[in-house]
């Protein structure tokens, strides 16, 4: 975790509209290990624009399906300064600023790739332990090779893919951030998920290889690298937060549990999101992950609003969400907990809710 960040607390408490369909992690991932069966890969070159390997001349944009996705679960803009009272707001705001072009408490740290002209977007591949690791790069449409951009990773659920995550499984991630950040959508290696037997170590190596390539070939703000994921991808994000706290600014596990907690490196800011009726990854698994990051980041037990108030509000209102900010956390390492009652994968609250992408972006912007 890069030190010197502003100690900023924020919280939004909003009800969201009805869901038009599932936004879950896919495949009903519940098993910490899963069946480690090798998935097939495509031979997508670095000049292609999608997972099928079809040629594309797009250099700075995203796939059409992703660019039209919206975040139906709007959230309030973060506030700054002293801890808030957590009073509910009724007017949603999705206005954001581009941290790559504004002056904030963190000075951008340009990577070695700054200045490299015309880096490619779309589908890419990289060799990891003899396997072809597939991932998608989404660049801001007006990408400037001399401007350091935040770099965000989003990880899919079990039995899904990086393109699935970009196209809607990771709701709002693309829509909220595509104008302001470089975004990465990897497809898991070693099995159908990220953290199970035969999956965890190869995917950790895969992540390292992609991160190293991105900072070497693209203009990345190394002070603003963050990772989010759903279901199996959320489990993996918790692993990355532990192992790569020296390279990640923030994590956002959505419907995840905590596979690792020993030997962690440095600290990361954490936004933990979980559905109140998740039958695939039980609610208390999310609470345990939340409490781990709270303790690791030096937060007290008090939140604004209280956890009890948040839980009661979400239970009382279907298709809603509410968030609580822990108080007294170490500088630059805030922890925020969000609960929701949105219908997700197979009509449970498992999966990535519609407000997720916008909320994650606001959290990262506030650091």
UniProtKB/TrEMBL annotation:
It is found in: Secreted. Keywords: Carbohydrate metabolism, Hydrolase, Polysaccharide degradation, Secreted, Signal, Xylan degradation. Residues 33-127 are annotated as: Disordered. SUPFAM superfamilies: alpha/beta-Hydrolases (SSF53474). InterPro entries: AB_hydrolase_fold, FaeB/C/D. Residues 33-105 have a biased composition (Low complexity). Transmembrane segments: none annotated. The keyword Secreted applies. This is Poly(3-hydroxybutyrate) depolymerase.
């Amino acid at each position: 975790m890069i030190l010197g960040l502003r100690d900023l607390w924020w919280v939004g408490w909003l009800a969201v509209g009805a869901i038009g369909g599932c936004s879950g992690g896919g495949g009903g991932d519940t098993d910490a290990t899963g069946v480690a069966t090798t998935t097939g890969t495509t031979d997508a070159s670095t000049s292609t624009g999608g997972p099928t390997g079809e040629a594309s001349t797009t250099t700075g944009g995203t796939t059409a399906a992703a660019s039209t996705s919206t975040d139906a679960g709007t959230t309030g803009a973060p506030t700054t300064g002293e801890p808030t009272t957590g009073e509910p707001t009724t007017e949603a705001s999705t206005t954001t600023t581009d941290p790559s072009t504004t002056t904030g408490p963190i000075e951008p740290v340009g990577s070695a790739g700054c200045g490299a002209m015309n880096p490619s977007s779309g589908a890419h591949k990289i060799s990891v332990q003899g396997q072809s690791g597939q991932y998608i790069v989404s660049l801001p449409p007006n990408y400037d090779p001399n401007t350091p951009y935040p770099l965000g990773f989003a990880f899919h659920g079990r039995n899904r893919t990086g393109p699935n995550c970009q196209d809607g499984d990771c709701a709002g991630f693309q829509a909220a951030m595509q104008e302001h950040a470089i975004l990465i959508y990897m497809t898991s290696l070693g099995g159908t998920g990220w953290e199970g037997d035969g999956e965890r170590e190869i995917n950790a190596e895969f992540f390292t290889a992609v991160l190293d390539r991105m900072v070497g070939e693209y203009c990345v703000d190394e002070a603003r690298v963050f990772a989010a994921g759903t279901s199996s991808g959320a489990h993996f994000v918790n692993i990355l937060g532990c192992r790569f706290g020296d390279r990640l600014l923030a994590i956002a596990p959505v419907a995840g549990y905590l596979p690792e907690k020993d030997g962690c490196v440095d600290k990361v800011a954490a936004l933990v999101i979980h559905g109140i009726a998740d039958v695939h990854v039980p609610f208390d698994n999310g609470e345990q992950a939340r409490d781990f990051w709270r303790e690791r980041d030096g937060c007290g037990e008090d939140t604004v609003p209280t956890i009890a108030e948040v839980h009661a509000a979400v239970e009382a209102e279907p298709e809603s969400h509410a968030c609580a900010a822990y108080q007294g956390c170490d500088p630059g390492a805030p922890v925020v907990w969000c609960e929701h009652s949105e219908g997700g994968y197979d009509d449970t609250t498992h999966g990535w809710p519609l407000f997720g992408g916008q909320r994650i972006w606001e959290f990262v912007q506030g650091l």
